[in-house]
Design goal:
Elements lengths: L1 H6 L1 E3 L2 E3 L3 H14 L6 H7 L3 H7 L8 H22 L5 H12 L1 H10 L18 H18 L1 H15 L2 H6 L4 H12 L3 E11 L2 E10 L2 E8 L2 H17 L7
Antiparallel strand pairs: 1-2, 3-4, 4-5
Helix pairs in contact: 2-3, 3-8, 5-6, 5-8, 5-9, 7-8, 8-9, 11-12
Length: about 250
Amino acid sequence: MKAFKFFFSFIGNKIEKPLPRDIEIFWFVKKTFGTSPEKIELYKTALRHRSVTKRLGQIDLVSNERLEFLGDAVLDIVVAHYLYYLFPEKDEGFLTKMKSKIVGRANLNSLSVKLKIDAVIEANLGKSDASESINGDAFEALLGAIYLDKGYLVCQKTIHKIIKENIDISSLESTETDFKSKLIEWGQKEKKKIVFQCELVSSRNFEPMYVANVFIEGEIKGTAEGPSKKKAEQGAAEEGLIKITGELGYLH
């Protein structure tokens, strides 16, 4: 019934048929997320990268950036809530790392491609400026569209479904994220000097404690402590990545 209402809207005695793009997006959202769009313009916007408006000069078109912002916030609270009840005995540190692995940019980019969102994104990028981040951004924007179109509970149910069907939580839990390697890789790509400094600061009951700092272009960007040099440096690198990119992913 909802599909029928979408395909034919009545304005007076006139029947208005949807555009091919509308039909494509309608069935994609229904198949991928299990919900029938009512406000199709929201989903069209969610799949429109800013390059379309900038390169074509179509200033009347709105990109997906605002919906991405909204979807990112909704995804954060839903995943946090999900993990809170999934791991009732785990502490804040564990939950924070698990959430970062799920909502991190690398994971969202991979998930977006798995859901074939990349195939329906409207973009006008050349090979030189193409970026995988547009896939994860579009995924978050679609969640923002579902939230506005269907409400929080439907969006929550949709996210739960995606997690259960596409993310192996057990495998993710045991995945050790190599933040130090990611930071060094970023530094090489951006031509930034990355320096780690680590020292033993105390040893209580034969248990050592190290403090590590990471410097980017001579400025401290991350500090952490740990029972080993490796763990301290990983913590400092993680903090550094959060500060310089505002996002976390996990290595496949």
